[in-house]
Amino acid sequence: MNMSQQSPSPSADRRLSVLARHLELSSSATVESSIVAAPTSGNAGTNSVFSHIVRAPEDPILGVTIAYNKDSSPMKLNLGVGAYRTEEGKPLVLNVVRQAEQLLVNDRSRVKEYLSITGLADFNKLSAKLILGADSPAIQENRVTTVQCLSGTGSLRVGAEFLARHYHQRTIYIPQPTWGNHPKVFTLAGLSVKSYRYYDPATRGLNFQGLLEDLGSAPSGAIVLLHACAHNPTGVDPTIDQWEQIRRLMRSRGLLPFFDSAYQGFASGSLDTDAQSVRMFVADGGEVLVAQSYAKNMGLYGERVGALSIVCRNADVASRVESQLKLVIRPMYSNPPIHGASIVATILKDRNMYREWTLELKAMADRIIRMRQQLFDALRARGTPGDWSHIIKQIGMFTFTGLNSEQVAFMTKEYHIYMTSDGRISMAGLSSRTVPHLADAIHAAVARAR
């Protein structure tokens, strides 16, 4: 037998085994060292793959509350964030909301299953009726598709992404000024944002002629954002006659109205009055988009309850539009939350609860109107320079005071009053107790500037 063909000796086996283990350990060490060197590894030292990221500025509205919370003064007053407060300065949960929640809690048949992509069916039907009117021909003819969204912001975003995908004109005109989140929502959704004149600083009222000129020169088919009522931040709304002129102009130019309805019933105290502008555009048979929020008028801020309704030419188009809205929503947040929408639906479909809601809603609106009058009276009593009648002419949660950023900074430093730098104040944050303090601050800021 040839020696080269013999089996290895036991000592040779041991040597081969040791060599194999050595090679395995070397290979393992190489892999381990490559993991340690990776920038995402927990052992990579102090370096971060996100080291290049700069700190973003605070949101101009929410940042006001952050600054307010850091202030230790007992005199501090937050007039920045748009949330209703009681006369005692406390957040309010409506009695009717607590009743609805109790009913929901006691209903043992309720489960926590996913809603459909479009949301709670009852909520959608009732929301469309609330903004368009129970006797709306558009609803009766099934020309309206409504989807539940994440409050007003989410409704605007879903509508904007739908338009960016399916509408032939990707330019949207927004009022100047407008809510600070509007341009961001529309831009990120894929629309090109332009503005039209709206507010006149000289009169602290509506620049109606400028509005008509700008919309009249907008390209045919452009989208136009309209505040249904209680324009944010100015509190300046067109009259019914002016709304009619806006409607005629927009229809003649083929402009597509996209309403933001954040304050229905909260502005005047009447749900129908605050929906007039929207209903005028629906009544002519044309197409309309409406974003609704229940944050203010039901006090459901943190529940994020809203709806997007699109009024179409006919039922077939509405059905196809809804099918595409589902394709927008599904990869965004899949489907909306159930609790807040259930509260709204419970209230809207019960006659007694609905009536109680309208009474509580009017009480909130009336308190804000009283705060306007009290502030106006306090400034007049102090002889504060200037015409402050715009405070009682404007409507809704906010007043555009006309104060400049230097005056606002002075009021924050000397009087611990917090508001956005453009001089917008939330009337809902005021009370009879704090009106004199604000009036003193405004008087000092204005007198100082002279």
Keywords:
Aspartate Aminotransferase, domain 1, 2 domains, Aspartate Aminotransferase, domain 2, 450 residues, alpha/beta, 16 helices, seven-stranded mixed β-sheet, disordered N terminus, two-stranded parallel ribbon
CATH topology type of the largest domain: Aspartate Aminotransferase, domain 2
Number of domains: 2
The whole-angstrom Rg is 30 Å
**SSE pattern:** HHEHHHEHEHEEEHEHEHEEHHHHEHEEH
Structural class estimated from helices and strands: alpha/beta
Residue windows where pLDDT falls under 50 for at least 5 positions? 1-5
- Give, in spatial order, the strands making up the sheet with the most strands: 2-10-9-8-7-3-4
Query: Roughly what is the average pLDDT, rounded to an integer?
Result: 91
CATH homologous superfamily annotation of the largest domain = Type I PLP-dependent aspartate aminotransferase-like (Major domain)
What form results from the Cα inertia axes? globular
The largest β sheet comes out as: 7 strands, mixed
Q: Can you name the CATH architecture of the largest domain?
A: 3-Layer(aba) Sandwich
Which class of the largest domain in CATH terms? Alpha Beta
What is the number of beta strands?
Answer: 13
Verbal overview:
Mean pLDDT is 91; it is low at 1-5. Strands 2-10-9-8-7-3-4 form a 7-stranded mixed β-sheet. Strands 1-12 form a two-stranded parallel sheet. Strands 5-6 form a two-stranded antiparallel ribbon. 41% of the residues are buried. It is globular and about 110 Å long. The chain is of the alpha/beta class and 450 residues long. The protein has helices at 10-37, 62-70, 95-106, 121-132, 137-140, 151-166, 182-189, 208-216, 240-253, 276-283, 315-333, 339-348, 351-382, 390-393, 405-415, 435-449; strands at 77-78, 144-150, 171-176, 192-197, 199-200, 205-206, 223-227, 256-261, 288-293, 305-311, 398-400, 417-418, 424-426. The chain has 2 domains: 60-92 and 366-448, Aspartate Aminotransferase, domain 1; 114-349, Type I PLP-dependent aspartate aminotransferase-like (Major domain) (Aspartate Aminotransferase, domain 2, 3-Layer(aba) Sandwich), CATH 3.40.640.
